[in-house]
């Protein structure tokens, strides 16, 4: 079995968050969704658990930060092409997200943009040339 990642995100409005993630290509998994949490699947290995603030608080006694004003992580996901990076980013904007809260990157061999969901969590979709990735860091620094 390949490894999977389950990203847990606190959200203020569970229904709004579900609609946002569905609009950018995630699929809701009803078997693991209720009035406190929603399981959202992007691929066989990438899953996001949207948790109400109250439910989130049962997982940790650490203070929950406001992702609209503070950052703890930037969630980077790969896409198949630069056009796919633009497509998911534009879909996020149309669904109520904030476009490009971090600088756009275009290094020729790598292209990336960003969006923030309605709760402020920043996602960075990126594409990288398979040839540049195969050649390693030296080829990437030469391309800059």
From TrEMBL:
Top-level taxonomy: Bacteria, Pseudomonadati, Pseudomonadota, Alphaproteobacteria, Rhodobacterales
Classification via InterPro entries: Glyas_Bleomycin-R_OHBP_Dase, Glyas_Fos-R_dOase_dom, VOC_core
PROSITE patterns in the cross-refs: VOC
Protein's recorded name: VOC family protein
Top-rank taxon, per record: Bacteria
Domain VOC: 3-128
Organism expressing this protein natively: Salipiger mangrovisoli
């Amino acid at each position: 079995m390949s490894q999977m990642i389950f990203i847990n995100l606190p959200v203020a409005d569970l229904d709004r968050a579900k609609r946002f993630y569905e609009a950018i290509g995630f699929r809701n998994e009803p078997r693991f969704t209720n009035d406190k949490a929603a399981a959202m699947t992007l691929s066989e290995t990438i899953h996001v658990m949207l948790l109400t603030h109250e439910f989130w608080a049962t997982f940790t006694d650490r203070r929950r930060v406001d992702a609209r004003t503070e950052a703890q992580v930037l969630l980077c996901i790969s896409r198949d092409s630069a056009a796919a990076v633009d497509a998911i980013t534009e879909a996020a904007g149309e669904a109520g997200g904030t476009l490009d809260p971090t600088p756009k990157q275009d290094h020729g061999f790598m292209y990336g943009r960003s969006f923030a969901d309605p709760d402020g969590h920043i996602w960075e979709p990126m594409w990288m040339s398979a040839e540049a990735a195969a050649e390693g860091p030296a080829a990437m620094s030469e391309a800059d």
